[in-house]
From TrEMBL:
Residues 220-318 form the HTH araC/xylS-type domain. Keywords: DNA-binding, Transcription, Transcription regulation. The keyword Transcription applies. GO terms for molecular function: DNA-binding transcription factor activity; sequence-specific DNA binding. PROSITE patterns: HTH_ARAC_FAMILY_1, HTH_ARAC_FAMILY_2. This is AraC family transcriptional regulator. InterPro entries: Class_I_gatase-like (IPR029062), DJ-1/PfpI (IPR002818), Homeodomain-like_sf (IPR009057), HTH_AraC (IPR018060), HTH_AraC-typ_CS (IPR018062). It comes from the Bacteria.
Amino acid sequence: MKHISILSLYDATLTSIDSSHQLFTRVNDFIKYQGKPPFYQVEIVGLTKNMKLGDGHYTIRVDKTIDQVNKTDVIVLPLLCGDFPKAIAKNKKYADWLIGHYHNNVEIVCLCVGSFFLASTGLLNNKQCAVHWAAKNEFQAMFPAIKIIDDTIITDEKGIYTCGGGYSYLNLILYILEKHLGREISILASKMFEIDIERKSQNPFAIFIGQKRHNDELVLKAQEFIESNPTATFSVPEVCEQFSVGRRTFERRFKKCTSNSIAEYMQRVKVEFAKKHLETGQKTVNEIIYETGYNDIDAFRKVFKKFTDLSPVDYRKKYSN
């Protein structure tokens, strides 16, 4: 039997705690129907017996406090909300306990932006971390040494599992079930809870938000210029000429500040422009592509799929009003 400790972190969402508890607990019922003993012992663990969540709107009574947990096999870090630096400070008392258990071969399952707290402990150093696309820039600014993965949903590295994207933590739990109990149980849980087990990428859901938390005024002006002209057909040399800077040096500065080359940034702005028109407009797909400034329809389709994992046609089917 594996013991699971779901941490009741300050500023955690109640839904991520409860749904984790529900999934792992219900799996015991699935196994029971197969005539097998329960596999998980699931407990909610906190600093005190009664933990307040959601700015005090909810109170959760935990099964144990952390000092009462002598041994566990899996620690689940729930999704956090609000101000991440404040949430990290509030949960600091969990850090040594978490680090100690990890070094005692305990698995850590981190749900979405619970990764901000996990990163603050140092346990993600020199590891990959999946981060919600909307939190990527803030995470990168706070933890520049951690390698962010923002295209796939799940990472699995040295006993630490992370996931990016709001409710994609449900897919991470299915992934853990498969590792512990096999594909059959994971598929059964997927069917019972109606979770899309094949969801692998954040890209179809992501909205491009340019990284602007830097102090390079010229790069900021270039970003604003590109974003203000999504249908323009200017080249990278023309952007550099617009600001009277040498291409090689400025491209290096731009990439350092934004994590995108100038060409990639222009592509992503055009893709966002196309996505909005595909979602709401009545124009044909080809008309929208031409409006972005592309004359080569196949070339744009390749760029669009690179950033969304969908063709423009499939994107319209998925998101049009």
